[in-house]
Amino acid sequence: MANTGSSASSVNSATAGEIFDCSDLGERSIGIAAAIDALERGDLVVLPTDTVYGIGANAFDDVAVTQLLAAKRRGRDMPVPVLVPSRSTVDGLVVSLSSEARSLMAAFWPGGLTLVVDQAPSLAWDLGETGGTVAVRMPLHPVTLEVLATTGPAAVSSANVSGKPPADTAEQARGQFGSSVAVYLEAGPGPDPVPSTIVDVSGEVPVLLRAGAVSVEQLREVVPELEVPAEKPSS
Fold first, then answer.
1. Confidence of residue 123 (pLDDT cuts 50, 70, 90)
2. Spatial separation of the C-alpha atoms in residues 188 and 171, rounded to whole Å
3. Which residues does 195 contact at the CB level (< 8 Å), separation at least 6?
4. Which of 53, 143, 153, 234 could form a Cys-Cys staple with 167, CB 3.0–4.6 A?
5. How confident is the model at residue 105 (pLDDT cuts 50, 70, 90)?
6. Which CATH architecture has domain 15-222?
7. Domain spans in the chain, listed from the N-terminal domain onward
8. Beta-carbon contacts of residue 79 (< 8 Å; ≥ 6 apart)
9. How far apart, in whole angstroms, are the C-alpha atoms of residue 154 and residue 136?
């Protein structure tokens, strides 16, 4: 069952907003442990990914997800995506996956592709007004994957207040969120600070929802039938 008893108020004021330099192996280990502990107690963390930095919460803690949305100043009409530690994790989150979805996962995971899938109705989480779907991605970043390997799926959105540019470092994220985030994991600028591409694979035909790190050309090498709504039909 979802945990609704935790709160971001549990952040210790002496450590709230602490940043850990993951380029230092000792500090990296301490920071990862601190991030895992923060997620498990219902606090927010900022994590590096292969695209932009993300602000994360325990996906199964409704109060923590609400705090994440509040920190970003966005409503439930923009539900939070989920990062997973492995491809196999997705099987526990959905009723079934299409062959196109599995082909895209095999080609681009871990990496900059988010897939919108039909979530299993038995899942005890509340990510916002999802309409029965969930956006999932396996990131290509060793720090975040190490955190997720212990915590399991985490609700993670781009680390920025709505209307502001996504953070390219943890320090930039701290400038926007301050002590509302318990732990910041700093790993320097990402190799390609472009948000992930989003493809909806919940229907019969994959549909591009957002262009991003993975190009349409790359996607169509795997799923030629991909629909791109902005494209005009030839006359």
1. confident
2. 9
3. 51, 52, 158, 166, 210, 212, 213
4. 53
5. very high
6. Alpha-Beta Complex (3.90)
7. 15-222
8. 127, 128, 129, 130, 134, 135
9. 10
